[in-house]
Amino acid sequence: MSSTVQGASPKKGRAFNALRYRDFRLLWLGMLISVAGSQMQNAAINWQTYEITGSALALGGLGLARLIPIVFFSLAGGVIADTRNRRKVMFLTQSVMMTTAFVLAIVTFIGIINVWWIYGVGFVNAAAAAFDLPARQSLTPSLVPREDLTNAITLSSMVFQIATILGPGIAGVLIAQFGVGIIYWFNGFSYIALLVALVLMKTATPAHLKASDANLKTMLEGLRYVIHERIILSTMLLDFFATFFSGANTLLPIFATDILKVGPQGFGLLAAAESFGSVVTGIIVSVWGDIKAKGAVLLIAVAIYGAATIGFGLSTTFAVSLLFLMVLGAGDTVSTILRSTIRQLITPDYMRGRMTSVNMIFFMGGPQLGEMEAGIVAALIGAPLSVALGGVATILFVAATAWKVPALRNYR
Which of 42, 78, 140, 359 is deepest in the core (most CB within 10 A)? Predict the structure, then answer.
């Protein structure tokens, strides 16, 4: 693998080792700008949906709109990632998402925006993501040597968390001052950074299979691989159920508006708090280096995520809510880094796209179904109890996984 890696400079401190490699550095910087815009848009979409409808069920409907294309297209996305040039796949999918951002900006600007426009964009973006994520996650191991893969995954995770700190916080201020539409314009232009990075990259990313191998048999091989790799399957199930039960992010507009009464600026801070905890934790993990007892630490991290979810759901104080969201973000970051590292280390390169596509059904299906579940349960029993019970369910599932899958618990 190292023979294909471009632009390694002399070694620096281990916290940022992966950034020594030119093409990973380009990808990282492009993603930092692009994902910041995407996180601004995600916050704006949630806010605008609740502003238009005033309905928790409508917020839950966002999850359904995003879930359907993930279920239908994810496995195909994995096959495409293993049979096509991964950089070219990313360029196409990012271009589609840039276009949908401009569509939202235009319909908001001319005053014809409604919830169906929002659902439609959510559907198209999720379909594009079904092809983008397998290509992107499979590309990273080609850009750095194996010994720096954990660091690369940590830094990639930090991109999303840094963007989620900056994105919603900026979105809250801009929404209060200028309205929602400007967020969509900003997001559309932010994609240019990643598109330029993809064009400038030099690392060869050839397909591992022939284009003629893109068929149902090849697609199902990825599914069979995951089912038979018990450790990989258990990490995916952990991810699915933790995000399914925890509806804190989906219901943030309700907490900001009706429970904590902090308005759009407070909503932006709540949306950023989880990622602040994530970034701080990500820096600690990157400096710490390789985590030895990966399986045990993963289980502990998801349990902490569940406990913090309970605390946030029951909190009625803004500062305490921010604190619990930061702890939630810390647990989520450690969990994300370790899940990704374990899967990438176990999976051979020719199978990574298809493994990632199966994971995407869990990784994105959990939150999207969770949005729907959170909206329905919140409508029935209220947002605080809905979130708190989700945290309890998460902890119970962690305990069951630790008991039933000792191979994960003991994985190092």
Answer: 78
What tokens appear for 65 in the block?
A: 């709109």
Q: What is the pLDDT of residue 13?
A: 45
Helices (H) and strands (E) in the chain, counts: 15, 0
Q: Identify the pLDDT of residue 15.
A: 67
Place of tokens 């940022």: 16
Low-confidence ranges of the chain (pLDDT < 50): 1-4, 8-13
At 139-173, the pLDDT tens digits run 888 888 877 877 888 888 788 777 767 777 788 88
Q: Decide if 106 contacts 233 (C-beta within 8 A).
A: no
What per-residue confidence (pLDDT) applies to 194?
95
- Domain count along the chain: 1
pLDDT at 9: 46
Roughly how many angstroms between the first and final C-alpha of the chain, as a whole number?
Answer: 23
Give the Cα separation of 408 and 412 in Å (integer).
Answer: 9
Q: To 5 degrees, how large is the angle CA 246–CA 252–CA 258?
A: 125
Specify the CATH number for the domain of residue 354: 1.20.1250.20
Q: Shortest CA distance to 401 belongs to which of 291, 330, 296?
A: 296
Distance CA 355, CA 334 (A): 21
What is the extent of the structural domain holding 131? 17-202+213-409
The vertex-298 CA angle with 137 and 43, nearest 5°, equals 55
> How far apart, in Å, are the Cα atoms of 94 and each of 50, 91, 304?
27, 5, 34
Query: Which tokens hold the place of 376?
Result: 């329905």
Q: Is residue 208 part of a domain?
A: no
Tell me if 11 is assigned to some domain. no
What φ, ψ does residue 389 adopt, rounded to 5°? -65, -30
Kindly state the tokens that stand for 350: 């020719």
Q: Is residue 39 part of a domain?
A: yes
DSSP for 20-39, please give it.
GSHHHHHHHHHHHHHHHHHH
Q: What is the structure's pLDDT at 205? A: 60
For residue 23, give every residue at least 6 positions away whose Cβ sits within 8 Å of its Cβ, in sequence order, or none. Answer: 5, 6, 7, 143, 201, 202, 203
**Does 62 reside within a domain?**
yes
Alpha-carbon distance values, 396 to 76, 105, 312, 406 (Å): 33, 42, 18, 16
| pLDDT for the residue 76 | 84
Q: Where does 110-229 have alpha helices with state H? A: 115-143, 149-178, 181-200, 216-228
Question: How many Cβ atoms are within 10 Å of 212's Cβ, its own excluded?
Answer: 8
